[in-house]
């Protein structure tokens, strides 16, 4: 079956740079039913993913492949970096390419237009963004007349940007949530106040017991019921399989229990976006992040 639209559940690969672990995760994901693999130029694993997918002998049309443009490539290197991603991933096209983060209005528009050009050329099927604010989304559409297909954003019980979420869903922009489980174990490094309290964890544990599911299953299902797509990540095959088993329904009352843990806002999200904007230097924008297979960590 050819996969043309973004599946509801995919395999996230951030921090999966050990080739053996990545191979086991992808194999387990494919066998379980995953048809979406999410990566990024900054993840430094496109080359390995390309090799692993070839080794698995999976027909290209049977899975949906997402990557993201590294912010240093926005100014001058979007099209060249996509060519390199295609080569690393051993594919003729990408199902979805996202701008990895919101930078300045000028840089966002330049990079977005380059992706739209590649879409016209048939190299990219869908063009989207990641970590974009409401303001950033509006400016892209106002300048190009084209809404992003998807906005990939942080989403967890404590870091759910409801205003941004509502805007995207109202505008027909798909949402993909990431770091859904993060605050259960440790604070999200970008949001120090995101860690769940012991009382909140206890409530979640009680819900897991009630539904006979793991914390991963509970929170991924919670996000799905808020109309997110999800990309759970794990290097453990058994956990990869478990994260896909979501054939249960969380009651409205229990959804509300989880929702009440949120302490996030669109304004706070915009502050985090600004941090990324300020971190990309003019020197990095001139140089870009271009590489054949892997790059040295200090190249970021």
TrEMBL record:
Which positions carry the signal peptide feature in this UniProt record? none
Hey, which family's this protein in?
A: Belongs to the aldo/keto reductase family.
InterPro entries for the chain? AKR (IPR020471), Aldo/ket_reductase_CS (IPR018170), NAD(P)_OxRdtase_dom_sf (IPR036812), NADP_OxRdtase_dom (IPR023210)
Report what the protein is called. Answer: Oxidoreductase, aldo/keto reductase family protein
Q: Which SUPFAM superfamilies match?
A: NAD(P)-linked oxidoreductase
Q: Which residues are tagged with the site Lowers pKa of active site Tyr?
A: 68
* Tree of life domain: Bacteria
Q: Which UniProt keywords apply?
A: NADP, Oxidoreductase
Q: Where is the NADP-dependent oxidoreductase domain?
A: 8-262
Select a single GO molecular function from the record's annotations and give it. oxidoreductase activity, acting on the CH-OH group of donors, NAD or NADP as acceptor
Instruction: Give the positions the UniProt entry annotates as the active site.
Output: 43
Q: Does the keyword Oxidoreductase apply?
A: yes
* Main EC class the enzyme belongs to: oxidoreductase
Tell me which PANTHER family the record gives.
Answer: 2,5-DIKETO-D-GLUCONIC ACID REDUCTASE, NADP-DEPENDENT OXIDOREDUCTASE DOMAIN-CONTAINING PROTEIN
Q: Does the keyword Oxidoreductase apply?
A: yes
Q: Which residues bind substrate?
A: 100
Could you say which EC number(s) this protein's record lists? 1.1.1.21
């Amino acid at each position: 079956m050819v996969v043309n639209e973004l599946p509801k559940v995919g395999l996230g690969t951030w921090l999966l740079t050990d080739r053996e672990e990545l191979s086991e995760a992808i194999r387990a994901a494919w066998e379980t039913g995953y048809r979406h693999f999410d990566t990024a130029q900054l993840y430094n694993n496109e080359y390995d993913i390309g090799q692993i997918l070839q080794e698995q002998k999976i027909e290209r049309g049977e899975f949906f492949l997402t990557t993201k443009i590294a912010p240093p490539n926005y100014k001058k290197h979007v099209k060249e970096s996509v060519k390199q991603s295609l080569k690393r991933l051993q594919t003729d096209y990408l199902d979805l390419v996202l701008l990895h983060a919101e930078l300045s209005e000028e840089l966002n528009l330049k990079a977005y237009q380059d992706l739209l050009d590649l879409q016209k050329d048939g190299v990219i099927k869908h063009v989207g963004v990641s970590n974009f604010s409401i303001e950033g989304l509006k400016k892209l559409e106002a300048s190009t007349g084209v809404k992003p297909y998807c906005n990939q954003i942080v989403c967890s019980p404590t870091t759910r940007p409801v205003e941004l979420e509502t805007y995207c869903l109202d505008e027909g922009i798909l949402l993909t949530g990431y770091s859904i489980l993060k605050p259960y174990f440790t604070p999200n490094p970008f949001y120090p106040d995101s860690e769940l309290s012991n009382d909140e964890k206890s409530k979640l544990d009680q819900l897991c017991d009630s539904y006979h599911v793991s914390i991963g299953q509970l929170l991924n299902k919670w996000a799905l019921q808020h109309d997110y797509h999800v990309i759970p990540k794990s290097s453990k095959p058994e956990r990869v399989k478990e994260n896909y088993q979501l054939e249960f329904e969380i009651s409205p009352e229990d959804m509300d229990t989880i929702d009440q843990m949120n302490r996030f806002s669109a304004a706070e999200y915009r502050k985090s976006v600004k941090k990324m904007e300020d971190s990309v230097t003019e020197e990095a924008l001139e140089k870009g992040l271009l590489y054949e297979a892997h790059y040295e960590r200090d190249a970021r």
